[in-house]
Each structure stands twice: as C-alpha cells, then as structure tokens.
Amino acid sequence: MAELDNVTKMYGKITALNGISLKIPRGEIFTLIGPNGSGKTTLLKILACIEKPTKGKVYFDGQLVEERSMPEFRLKSTMVFQKTVLFNASIYENVAYGLKLRGFSKEEINERVRTVLKLVKLEGYEKRSAKKLSGGEQQRVSLARALALRTELLLLDEPMANLDQRSASIIEAAISQIRQETNTTIILATHDMFQVETLSEKVALINNGKLIHVGKTREILEHSRKLTDFARIENIFSGVSCITKDGTSRIDVGDNMQIEASMRRSGKISVFVRPEDIILSKIKFASSARNVFEGRIVEILDLGPTVRLRIDAGKQFVVQITKHSFIEMQLNLSSKVFVTFKASSVHTID
Question: Which residues share a beta bridge with 301?
C-alpha cells in the first residue's frame, strides 16, 4: 500500500527524519511508537502528502509520488491530529465539510454523516455547536469527519492523548470496527501501550528521526518487553560505544556528539537520559558530571508547576524544571543554555 524509501526530511538544519525505509501493507493497523519529537508526526504528514521529503521516495500501490502528483495522492488519505481543529459550526457541518468539497450528493452526505456519528456515539447531536463540546467529544467529531471521507489511508496522530476515558474508549472501538469492516490502512502514532497491544498488527519504533525496529506487535511485546516502555522514554540516543581506559563507555551518537556513560559496553547501543536527571544552566559551571552540551531552547511547554523544554544541542534534549527555576533563569525561546548530566544517568535500552 504505502512505502517510504530512504526518506529524509529537513527543517532548516534540523533533521526530522533520517533515512526512513518502511513498507506498510494494505488493510493493516500499523503503529508508530516513539518519544515526543522523534519524527512520528513528520512521517505521517509525508504519508498524507502534506509535506514532501527532502530526500528519498514515497510510493502508493507501487506508484511514485512526485510533487506534481501530490494533490492527487492527497485525496487517498486523511489525517486526524492530536490538537483538534473544528469550525465554529454545527457537528453536522463539520463532518459534512470534506464531503461537500468533493461534490457528494446531499443524500450521500446525509447517509455518511449519520453512519459515522453513530460510530463515534454522537448520533442525535447533529445540530449542536462543535465549539461547545468537551475536548473528547471534539476529537470524536474530528475522527468522524475523517471517517466520512472513506479514504484508503487513515493517519492518526495520537488522537486519544489526554482524552477522558469514555471518549478514548469510543475512538478505540471505532478504529477497531473500521479495521474489521473495511480494507482501510490505518497508521496510528501513540504513546499508549494498551492501544498498541489491542489495536495494532505491526509496530515501528522511531527515535531522533531514525527507525529503530519494525516487527509484529505480539513479537515485540513477548520478546522485547522493555521496548514497551520506549514510548514513555525521552532523550534516546543510538550510536556506537567503546570502552575507555577508566572502564566507562564513550558513545558516539553522531552530529559530533559523544556521551559518557558509567556502564561497560561496546558496539552498537541505544541509551536514554531521564529529563529530571538533566541540569539546565545559563552558564557552564564546574561539575564532576562528564556530559556537558551547549544548545538553545527550541520549545517550551508549560505544565503548571513544572516546565518542559526542548533543547537543540546538535541532538535534541528534553529537560524538565520547576516553574520557579524557569522564571528565575529568565528563559525564553532561543535562550542559550547548557545541558549537564552525569555518566551514571545514562541508561541502556536492552
């Protein structure tokens, strides 16, 4: 159905995807797992023909997607984003919008809207304003709008993240039903391992824009149980490790970056550093910590008592600090900072 051949996507100097090659068979639920910023959304956008790759090729049913043919292939897919965007109109108008653009008859539109609203448990709410719905209900409308188009490829970018349990369960059931009743290919990006276990047939693990592993869901869950925690881990780096004279490891993770780790390991390795184990400072200070990298803040997420920051230091780091520290340090986007962590804070993914 869909194939990526050595696809790379650059945004300026930032590599969002790096040499991704992946085949997705028709009619399967295929899951993408990876930490925030790993490249999942970019991959989905390329498959949706919303973005074009910087390098590499994309195929649908064996046909090469070229820039001039992107609008044609775009009609074969639809994408549901984590952040819902609805019009200030009724539920009916929101769900019917894409169908009207594609010239369906009024009778066909009514039938499709009725069918998908029943699927997401919103039948009878056609006239209600979409803007007055809860977050979970709005996401169900968003899914219904996508399902009404009945495209060959359905792309779901963490559609159940941060939803109430009822809405999440309804969306999960709808996805499962669509899979059973149609030949739609569904690609789901998620952090939820329950969804992976209950919905998907194959899984791709992605980190820092690179494909780490692809396999059948059951195979991964049974034989690589530690990988089920992959989606919840931040700051994952893959590279080649060598043992130093003092018995520790030096890991070359690319982009002129080497990470010092306290374990003794050589050869290919994947490691991670917890956000809470990273010290953030505006100046480089004297410390016994072996890993110190200079970078700039590229993303700020306010979580109330804490703030999560994404730092571009050649490789990207996610750091979590208190709101008090964030204000006291007078940080903002593009602020120059230093990322510091101990060799003992570097853990392996086995």
Answer: 308
Q: Where do the domains of the chain lie? A: 2-232, 236-348
- 3-state SS string for 141-189: HHHHHHHHCCCCEEEEECCCCCCCHHHHHHHHHHHHHHHHHCCCEEEEE
Q: Which helix H or strand E contains 340, and what residues bound it? A: strand 336-341
What is 2-232's CATH topology? Rossmann fold (3.40.50)
Instruction: Pick the closest to residue 331 from 279, 273, 280, 277 (CA basis).
Output: 280
Q: Do domains 2-232 and 236-348 have the same CATH topology?
A: no
pLDDT digit string, tens, across residues 175-232: 999 988 998 999 999 877 677 878 888 999 888 898 988 888 877 666 554 555 565 6
Long-range pairs, 133-139, Cβ under 8 A, ≥24: 133/91, 134/164, 134/167, 135/84, 135/162, 135/163, 135/164, 135/167, 136/163, 136/164, 136/166, 136/167, 136/168, 137/167, 138/84, 138/86, 139/80, 139/84, 139/163, 139/167, 139/171
Q: Are strands 279-281 and 291-302 parallel, antiparallel or unpaired?
A: unpaired
Q: How far apart are CA 338 and CA 282, in angstroms?
A: 6
For 343, residues 6+ apart whose C-beta sits below 8 A from its C-beta are: 248, 260, 261, 262, 289, 290, 291
Quick: pLDDT tens for 33-90.
Answer: 887 778 999 999 999 999 999 999 999 988 999 888 888 899 999 999 988 889 999 9
Q: What's the CA gap between 77 and 184, in Å, rounded?
A: 10
Tokens of 332: 């903002």
Strands 236-243 and 249-254: antiparallel
Maximum C-alpha span of the chain: 76
To 5 degrees, how large is the angle CA 318–CA 322–CA 325? Answer: 105
The arrangement of secondary structure in 236-348, i.e. its CATH architecture, is Beta Barrel (2.40)
